[in-house]
DNA sequence: GCGTCGAATTCGATCGATCAAGTCGCGAGG
DNA sequence: CCTCGCGACTTGATCGATCGAATTCGACGC
């Protein structure tokens, strides 16, 4: 087989020669077309077209200092619990970035050594030092995660998906989903369908995210003057925990519906119902949180709070561009309201 | 707020000065340490450490022509059917790339204009022209997809996840999962559990991927001398199609088990069973394909063929490195054998 | 003592773009 | 008539690394 190399892409100089102008003029034709006489502009554009020219990203990056790349860390599989949301989010982010002229660079947190706490920062550090990306999107803003403060210390540009729970004064831009509004929506939906004894199945008390979501349920119940005593349980975010806890709750408090902090927990409830011969929907209402792929396909369809990830992505990129342009950002961040995807698990007979 | 910029990262020259050597020596310390005298090497490394130096990627890219970036196209949500596999694959790819010193750059296929067929190639073209990535991983190798041949024409380096179904002589490296082996495994598993009338629920006949998977079922049945007449149905890859088709099949052929071409179809079968008051597992065995997140959590757990995506990613990156090093590659590609994730849907009472 | 060889290190040019500072031509203003 | 200003375009330097070739240095043989 002949080892024929791909043809070398044309450079600015090639275009300049063909159009009979200087390099800088071609550069201007691309970056500030208003500077050129219409006639010259047309000639240059024609040459660009003819050669199929596109600026070399490396050269541009070197000179301008901007790679037009946004770094996103993939959380390793271990941390990966109910986060089936990630895929939809990555999609949305790639799309929003593209519209702003950016690409998404994925990286991981370095090798996971058994028995050692993985170094969450290694990946960020390497990319930062080598000026590989213009900015980061940080997604794991749970309590005690050092990423945000570490990045802020280094003055690295980043935007967080998730509120800075641990530090109200951190002052970096963020975008988040209003969890309380979501569960309020879920609870009101169940109330409308005639449920009164609506249980909360959530996470441990030290999860700010979980407590935020719980608050929405609490508020909606309180607004109707309904008691919540004995109707709330807090467990780990696993299928089994949801299974066990919902079974216990059915025995002790006889709820007719469950609002859950995650789809994972909600699926656990569905397991319990299947095991007891109860029908999700007609017999017991169930609402999850995340609107994961699972919610869409599990029989009979899981009603779930749907985070507006497309909007989140757009807002994140918007905040990023402001940040990179050194425009001041809203200190308060952006809070977006989820919707409710209604399915069989809240249908009445 | 003071607009304090992040400190400028140190350059090669800074390190050289601190270590009292020339720039080139520092470069050698990084790229060919064997060239240096141990004592000099130590001095340079110390300086690198002290300054926290990492080579500027843009400069390196410009000079060497290699960005150490692998391009991966996110298929738009529309094309996204049962492909919940994507997330696991992306994870695996990021990890395998990292180990080889690469990062993954995500892009999308350009704006989806209503009424127009999206241009699958636009994204590839732009990245290729601007020399933004060293190579591509192509994932949608279904029949009639122009990506592979288009890239090959331009001599763009790429490796395919998926066999070149439409062109046996295409000659580019590829890695794929042996679908027939997977369904053979699934069928044998059901046979061992005592099933005899095992149905096939698959895709349309023009899907080579689907026919490959179907062949495995056929082979396993034939090996036991079992008839397959009337036990195979081919439908679209949707939940509803799986639901409807499995219901019809139960009525006409009374199978005791289903092997499905996808988890989506298998979940459709589960719906049918729920609707009829049949228990997945004890009453009717069901096996899916993909081992998606859904399979893991849907009650009572869906037994599913699990593609070895981590292995796939490793082989893809391996092939890519060979390709970029201009080493000859196996014309035949790499075919990997899936495993079977056994869960409740094939448990016997 | 001198030439030779190879290991270790240095020097200058270069990748392809943009920045900063020019040059050129032309028309208006003094 | 000359200058000034301004629009349109050009020129040389630069970003930070690596490539290719040149240079220094010490050891060794004769």
UniProtKB/TrEMBL annotation, chains A, B:
Q: What is the protein's name according to its record?
A: LacI family DNA-binding transcriptional regulator
Keywords (alphabetical) are: DNA-binding, Transcription, Transcription regulation
Sequence ranges assigned to domain HTH lacI-type in this UniProt record:
10-64
Q: What is the lineage of its organism?
A: Bacteria, Bacillati, Actinomycetota, Actinomycetes, Propionibacteriales
UniProt KW Isomerase keyword: no
Which SMART domains does the entry link to?
A: HTH_LACI
Task: State the organism named in the record.
Answer: Nocardioides panacisoli
Pfam short name (any one): LacI
Provide any one GO MF term from the record: DNA binding
Its domain of life reads Bacteria
């Amino acid at each position: 087989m002949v080892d024929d190399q791909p043809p070398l892409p044309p450079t600015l100089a090639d275009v300049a020669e063909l159009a009979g102008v200087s390099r800088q003029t071609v550069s201007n034709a691309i970056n500030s077309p208003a500077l050129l006489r219409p006639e010259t502009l047309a000639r240059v554009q024609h040459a660009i077209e003819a050669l199929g020219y596109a600026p070399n990203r490396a050269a541009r990056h070197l000179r301008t200092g901007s790679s037009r790349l946004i770094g996103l860390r993939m959380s390793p599989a271990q941390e990966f619990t109910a986060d089936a949301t990630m895929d939809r989010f990555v999609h949305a982010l790639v799309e929003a970035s593209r519209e702003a002229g950016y690409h998404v660079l994925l990286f991981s947190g370095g090798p996971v050594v058994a028995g050692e706490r993985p170094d969450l920062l290694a990946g960020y550090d390497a990319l930062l030092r080598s000026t590989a990306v213009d900015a980061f999107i940080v997604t794991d803003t749970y309590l005690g995660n050092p990423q945000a403060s570490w990045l802020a210390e280094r003055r690295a540009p980043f935007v967080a998906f998730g509120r800075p729970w641990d530090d109200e004064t951190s002052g970096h831009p963020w975008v988040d989903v209003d969890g309380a509004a979501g569960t309020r929506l879920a609870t009101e939906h169940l109330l409308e369908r005639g449920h009164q004894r609506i249980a909360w199945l959530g996470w441990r008390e030290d999860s700010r995210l979980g407590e935020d979501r719980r608050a929405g349920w609490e508020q909606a119940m309180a607004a109707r003057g309904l008691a919540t005593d004995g109707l709330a349980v807090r467990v780990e975010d696993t299928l089994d925990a949801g299974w066990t806890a919902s079974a216990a709750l059915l025995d002790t408090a006889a709820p007719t519906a469950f609002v859950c902090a995650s789809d994972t927990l909600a699926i656990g409830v569905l397991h319990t119902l299947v095991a007891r011969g109860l029908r999700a929907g007609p017999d017991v209402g169930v609402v999850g949180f995340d609107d994961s792929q699972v919610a869409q396909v599990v029989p009979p369809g899981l009603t779930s709070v749907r985070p507006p990830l497309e909007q989140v992505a757009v807002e994140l990129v918007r905040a990023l561009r402001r940040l990179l342009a050194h425009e001041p950002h809203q200190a308060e961040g952006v809070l977006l309201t989820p919707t409710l995807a209604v399915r069989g698990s809240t249908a009445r007979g």
